[in-house]
Amino acid sequence: MTDVDDERDFYGTFSGEIRQARQSLWLWAPWVANRIRSLLPELRAADRGVQIKVFIRDDTDQLQRKDTSQSLIADLRAVAHTVIPMHVMHQKIAVIDERTVMLGSLNVLSQSWTREVMLTMRGAYFARKLLAHEHAETFARPPRCGRCKGAEIEIRRGKNGTWYWRCYAAPCKTTPSGRTPPWTQDIRLTSGR
C-alpha cells in the first residue's frame, strides 16, 4: 500500500496516477455527476494511447437517468474508449496500467461532499487478480443487440447469479404490436484472464 487518501487528497493522487498511465485505466464509478467536469482533462490520457474503460450504473438508477447525468455521461463517452452500464453496480475501483489499484468508498466521477477513504496499492499480481474478479476483459466487450443490432447494452446479474447482456434501446423494446421483453444474452465467463 502506498497511499491512504480522503476525499480532499484523493483527486491529487488520482490525477498524478492518470498522468503517469501508459497503457490502461479501468474505472468502476457508479454515478456520473458534476465531478466529471474536473476530470475530463485528465481522462484525455486516451489521446496518448491509454485505453480507458469505465463501468457506471445503468439508467434505471434514478440519478443516472436524469438529463443532467445523461449529458455528463455523453461527455464521458466522448473521451473514454468504452463506457459500460451495469445494473445496481456499486464498486469504487481504479486500476492503472494493471499494476496500481485504487480501492475504497469514494465514487470518482461524482464525489462532492461526503467523507471517504481510498487506498492506493501497487502490485501487478493484485491488479490482475482484481480485474479477473470483476470480469473486466469480458465485461468490457459488450456485443451488439441480437434484435436491433444497436450498441445500447448493459450488464445485469439474475437472481440465480448468472450474468447477462441486456439491450436498453427503447426502439428495441417496442414492436409494432406493443412492448416486448428486452433482448438478453448470457455472458460466458472464462476462468482467470
Q: CATH homologous superfamily of the largest domain? A: Endonuclease Chain A
Given the structure, what is the number of helices? 6
CATH architecture grouping of the largest domain: 2-Layer Sandwich
Mean pLDDT across the residues is 94
Enumerate the spans where pLDDT stays under 50 for 5 or more consecutive residues. none
Number of domains: 2
Shape, per Cα inertia axes: globular
Strand portion, in percent? 25-35%
How many DSSP E strands? 12
* Run of helices and strands: EHEHEHEEEEHHEEHEEE
Q: Which structural class fits the helix and strand makeup?
A: alpha+beta
CATH class label of the largest domain: Alpha Beta
Radius of gyration: 17 Å
Helix content class: 25-40%
CATH topology of the largest domain: Endonuclease, Chain A
Described by strand count, sense and barrel closure, the largest sheet is:
7 strands, mixed
Strand order of the largest sheet: 1-7-6-5-2-3-4
- C-alpha termini separation: 24 Å
